[in-house]
């Protein structure tokens, strides 16, 4: 005759085994991290890189005045950059952060915003338009996903 052990013993566990099992369960559940609500912060900022380059380095030091015109508001925003000897070009981001000492601002000192719309730009050297172009700022949005545990 072969005896097969049973998975369900017929005897009741002792009182000490029950208390020990309860303590183990409390320790396991107590050590588990509690689920908390998530608070995500999100930001999306559009910027346009504008640039000018003296391709052959013939000008020497010069002043580059970037002018961005908002077709929606009619406002002009300016940024002046001084290029030193040996520096033939520069790239700038529009709009720049107003905390930056050099930022795009209107004649009244208003900082440029990345507002959706059409813009034209030019860079003047010695008071004459050297380069220019146009761009469109898109509308931007943010999505937040809540992760459930």
DSSP strand tally: 6
**Number of helical elements:** 1
Strand order of the largest sheet: 3-2-5-6
Mean pLDDT: 83
Q: What gyration radius follows from the Cα positions, in whole Å?
A: 33 Å
Largest sheet: 4 strands, antiparallel
Which descriptor suits the 3D outline?
A: elongated
Uncertain spans, ≥5 residues at pLDDT below 50?
none
> In percent terms, what proportion of residues is strand?
25-35%
What order do the SSEs take from the amino end to the carboxyl end, as H and E? HEEEEEE
CA distance, first residue to last residue: 51 Å
- The multimeric state of the shown protein is single chain
Approximate helicity band = 10-25%
Look at the helices and sheets and give the structural class. Answer: mainly beta
Please describe what this structure looks like:
There is one protein chain. With 149 residues, this protein is mainly β. It has one helix spanning 15-31, and strands at 48-53, 62-70, 76-83, 89-94, 117-125, 128-137. The strands form two sheets. It has a four-stranded antiparallel β-sheet, with no helix packed on it. Strand 5 (117-125) and strand 6 form a beta hairpin. The mean pLDDT is 83.
